[in-house]
From TrEMBL:
Keyword Magnesium part of the UniProt annotation: yes
Name assigned to this protein: Probable 2-phosphosulfolactate phosphatase
Cofactors, names only: Mg(2+)
Enzyme class: hydrolase
EC number: 3.1.3.71
Pfam families: 2-ph_phosp
Keywords: Hydrolase, Magnesium
Catalytic activity: (2R)-O-phospho-3-sulfolactate + H2O = (2R)-3-sulfolactate + phosphate
InterPro entries: ComB-like, ComB-like_sf
Molecular function terms, GO-annotated: 2-phosphosulfolactate phosphatase activity; magnesium ion binding; sulfopyruvate decarboxylase activity
Family: Belongs to the ComB family.
Species: Proteiniclasticum sediminis
């Protein structure tokens, strides 16, 4: 496990990266792909996202700054807005504060999967099938580890170990222990800084949605600048 701001090209090169931003960017990406989006195109800045909209067809612009809708964008970073009627057959150009940046920073990995609690089991299966070392990239908040991403990493590791024994780093073991000792995920995640931010904004429904574990079989994969379902 590593934190997005500590990812160097060398630390992920040749490995399978699983990028996690449970609250909420990777939960949004999984939902968009699950509801039939043709692709999700992650962008690190609002300007880039607006430029990309001009170049692509059938674009829906989504994302957040300070967890709120960006001026001129179609959707915020609330997974419940990514319905089939909003995103099916569309290219979702997405920019978020930490999540899309974490994806960009992982781009030298051999494979890059998008993980969250919602697809923890499925993404674990995909990572194990790759038969390489796996690095879970905790998108975090402002360069720091976030509790929600840390326990999600623990869930993914637990599901990976169900399939195949593995050698774990100390930080990976710690995430696993935290997951195994907090099966009531909310009792732990509600202590996370960003949980409080989203709750204050009245986004409890998003929290309920993002905290559901292993309810999706979708494994989005980032390749050549775009995210699609991995087969
Ligand atoms: C991010 O990428 O920083 C988050 O997804 C923020 C959010 O919850 O909207």
């Amino acid at each position: 496990i590593t934190c997005a701001d500590h990812v160097s090209p060398e630390s992920v090169k040749g490995n399978t990266a699983v990028v996690v931003d449970t609250l909420r960017a990777t939960s949004v990406i999984i939902t968009a792909i699950s509801h039939g989006a043709k692709s999700v195109v992650p962008m690190t800045s609002v300007e880039e996202a607006l430029e990309t909209k001009k170049k692509l067809e059938n674009v829906v612009l989504g994302g957040e700054r300070k967890a709120r809708l960006i001026d001129g964008f179609d959707l915020s970073n609330s997974p419940k807005e990514y319905t089939a009627s909003a995103v099916a057959e569309k290219n979702v150009v997405l920019t978020t504060t930490n999540g899309t940046k974490a994806i960009a920073r992982s781009s030298s990995a051999a494979r890059i999967f998008i993980g969250a609690l919602r697809n923890a089991r499925a993404v674990a299966e995909a990572a194990v099938a790759e038969e390489r070392d796996a690095v879970i990239v905790n998108a975090g908040t402002g360069g720091e580890f976030s509790m929600d991403d840390f326990i999600t990493a623990g869930a993914i590791i637990a599901h990976m170990l169900e399939l195949k024994p593995a050698e774990l780093t100390d930080v990976a073991k710690t995430a696993l222990i935290i997951y195994e000792t907090h099966r009531d995920l909310r009792s732990y995640i509600q202590e996370a800084h960003h949980y409080g931010v989203l709750e204050e904004l009245g986004l409890s429904e998003d929290l309920d949605f993002c905290l559901q574990e292993s309810v999706e079989d979708i494994v989005p994969e980032y390749k050549n600048g775009i995210i699609k379902q991995h087969f």
